[in-house]
Amino acid sequence: MSDQARLSPGDRAPDFSLASDQGDEVNLYDLLQEGRKVIVYFYPAAMTPGCTKQACDFTDSLDALQGAGYTVVGISKDTTTKLAKFRERDGLTITLLADPELAVHRAYGAYGEKKLYGKVVEGVIRSTFVVDPDGTVELAQYNVKATGHVAKLRKDLGLPVAPA
């Protein structure tokens, strides 16, 4: 359906350096230096129902994911100001990153043609990636559902589905 490059397990994860809602610069390869795996997920827009559900699910699972050696970062095209409001409104504890130019979205194949209500449109493709400490994509999932995605991801990673 779309001709943008998609990542597959075994590919080198594109590095990025993006501003967080808390005012710091977050670099993928700096996170990997800590020897942890990084879950990078892309979502269309802060403070919308599906994206809120997904962000709250990641927040609810964060302790268990961190305990299993994962760092979680959520990336959207929103401004850092909007992301800060999103964090505050919903009590989010995950790292939220702003990619308003969509460069990182495109590097990961998380922006392009998709079907929306039966029509082909261009937009953010809700996607999740797990990156190994060596910078290799371990898992690449495109067109994920907002609801139930974190539980499915935990199952795919061999972790208990319910937060501990």
Could you write a compact summary of the structure shown?
The chain is an alpha+beta fold and about 160 residues long. It has helices at about 30-35, 50-65, 80-90, 105, 150-155; strands spanning about 15-20, 25, 35-40, 70-75, 95-100, 110-115, 120-125, 125-130, 135-140. The protein has a seven-stranded mixed sheet.
Describe the structure.
There is one protein chain. Strand 4 (70-76), helix 3 and strand 5 (95-98) form a beta-alpha-beta unit. This protein starts with 16 loop residues before the first strand and ends in an 8-residue tail after the last helix. The chain contains 5 helices and 9 strands. The radius of gyration is 15 Å and the shape is globular. Helix 2 runs parallel beside helix 5 (149-156). The chain is an alpha+beta fold and 164 residues long. The mean pLDDT is 92. It has a single domain (17-155), classed as Glutaredoxin.
